[in-house]
Amino acid sequence: MMKISIIGAGNVGINMFEALRKKKEIKMVSLFNRSIEKILSHRKKIFITNNINEIKKSDIYIISTNDDSIEKVSNELKGRDGLIVHTSGSTEMKVLSIHKNFGVLYPLQTLTKDKLCDFKKIPICIEGNKNINNQKLKKLVKIIGSKCYNFDSKQRLALHVSAVFACNFTNYLFSIAYDICAENKIPFEIFFPLIRETIEKIEKNNPSKIQTGPGIRKDLNTIKKHLNFIKSKNSKKIYSILTEGIIANNGK
Amino acid sequence: MMKISIIGAGNVGINMFEALRKKKEIKMVSLFNRSIEKILSHRKKIFITNNINEIKKSDIYIISTNDDSIEKVSNELKGRDGLIVHTSGSTEMKVLSIHKNFGVLYPLQTLTKDKLCDFKKIPICIEGNKNINNQKLKKLVKIIGSKCYNFDSKQRLALHVSAVFACNFTNYLFSIAYDICAENKIPFEIFFPLIRETIEKIEKNNPSKIQTGPGIRKDLNTIKKHLNFIKSKNSKKIYSILTEGIIANNGK
Predict the structure, then answer these.
(1) Cβ–Cβ gap A193/B122 under 8 Å
(2) Positions of E strands within chain B
(3) Residues of chain A with C-beta less than 8 angstroms from the C-beta of B221
(4) Could you identify which of A115, A130, A177, B49 might form a hypothetical disulfide with B166, taking C-beta atoms 3.0 to 4.6 angstroms apart as the criterion?
(5) A122: DSSP letter
(6) CA distance B230 to A78
């Protein structure tokens, strides 16, 4: 039986907690949060605390605080014997290096508390400071039911940067399209088939090979027309920079 | 029986041709292309020509050439009685105004010749210079099996601009993510669940309300880390501009 404590009841922490507490191979022993009010609702399921020294002896301590607090929390756990891991995509493993056994357990998904995730659909990236810790984390991911990827800290940072481009920035572009549609009384749903088609295509191809649109065609007339049409200065700038990028990319 | 000719055997033209020729309500009477070689393979299915004067008398002439040629082709059709339409997202209807009956039939999808599309999944935007032409185009779209939207030229341009943001630019961002992954030996498929989740969310929400990532959190540490990590000057610039946009947008 693997004993686990969760430190930080944010979106990742709560999703991990709810997934792990249902597994027979796992015993959840503590849930820590700085503000106790936020975790009161869980007190019947698990020992809760806002005092880090009260966290029970565990095989794995999962630090799922925000990135800026990881090192501080880690320091407060000094002297603990178990495996200390954080769940951050953009934080190096070595911030935990005051411990003997440490690592990373990073779920590649936007998690929210309101809607618990299905970890079967979520890749988890692991990194351990020793092979034995890699093995432990691999085993834990298997119990969770996620697909496991073994990445070092540089790869994880690359992954996190890529995720910003592939998800955060694309969502932002959708929001620009949404606003233009709203201003012109166009139902945004008209795009759903086109967006789905775009996604299906990138699942089968290198995206740069299937680029379409006025940029890749160097259709300067259309580009000019579009730029004249766009009112927002910000969106105009984004249109120009991305179009330039597509044109330059094509020349490679 | 509606007689139709298609002028321009590009991706849109061939997809329309193949869809329409199977409909019992339609009789395809000519397929025109400047270069006859490109349409020789269709000669058993339909009368083909590269001489615009040989195009047979039709109820609807569909001009599916590239945008720059629409007006020229339209002028060459001067004096024809039927309804003359083009299929371009970013061209105003009025370029066809030398005719009595004219309009637009714009399928909102990236079409390719290699893989014929299923028009049931593709919205088509129509515009006619008279109500009766709107009715005719609406009927044609119904026969094709597509969802029909009645938009004026300004709305169609807005739609086209939005499509560039929602599809062309997002594809380009995927290509940047793909390249970063490739450089760091990360299989791009790791993103498919996250991308699918992003799409499912925007189908239910205003995208600006569900923005995530370091920009919206104003997580300057992570943003700095990411910018240091990105090697390509171009991608660095795009990262900065989009992050600034997200931060500014959040302040609204």
Answers:
(1) yes
(2) 2-7, 26-32, 48-49, 60-63, 83-86, 102-107, 123-128, 147-150
(3) 67-68
(4) A177
(5) S
(6) 34
CB-closest option in B174, B175, B212 to A110: B212
**Per-residue pLDDT tens over the stretch B58-87:** 999 999 999 889 999 999 999 999 999 999
pLDDT of residue B203: 95
**Three-state DSSP state, A75:** helix
User: CA A9 to CA A105: how far, in whole Å?
Assistant: 16
* Domain interval for residue B173: 156-250
Q: In terms of domains, do A72 and A168 share one?
A: no
A148 touching B (Cβ < 8 Å): no
Helix B11-20 with B131-144: angle, nearest 10 deg = 80
Q: Which residue in this structure is represented by tokens 């015993």? A: A27
For B156-183, how does the pLDDT look when each residue is reduced to its tens digit (9 = 90+)? Answer: 999 999 999 999 999 999 999 999 999 9
Search chain A and give the residue with CA nearest B210.
A171
> What is the Cα gyration radius of chain B?
23
Which residue carries 């594809």 as its tokens?
A: B171
Report the residue from A162, A181, A197 with minimal CB separation from B110. Answer: A197
Q: List the CATH number of the domain containing A224.
A: 1.10.1040.20
Angle between helix axes A233-251 and B170-183 (nearest 10 degrees) is 50
Q: Which of B121, B150, B179 is the last residue of a domain?
A: B150
Q: What is the pLDDT averaged over residues A18-47?
A: 97
A contacts of B215 (beta carbons < 8 Å): 164, 168, 172
- Tokens representing B151? 């938009």
> Which pair of structure tokens corresponds to residue A52?
């880090």
Contact state of B214 with A90 under an 8 Å Cβ cutoff? yes
Mutate to test the interface with B, among A141, A150, A175 (most CBs of B within 10 A): A175
Which of B96, B161, B156 is CA-nearest to residue B124? B156
User: Strand, coil or helix: what is A139?
Assistant: helix
Q: Do residues B129 and B39 share a domain?
A: yes
Residue A173 is nearest to which of B108, B166, B176, comparing CB atoms? B166
Burial class of residue B241 in the structure, from the number of CB atoms within 10 Å of its CB (0-12 exposed, 13-18 middle, 19+ buried): middle
State the ipTM, two decimals: 0.88
- A56 with A161, same domain: the answer is no
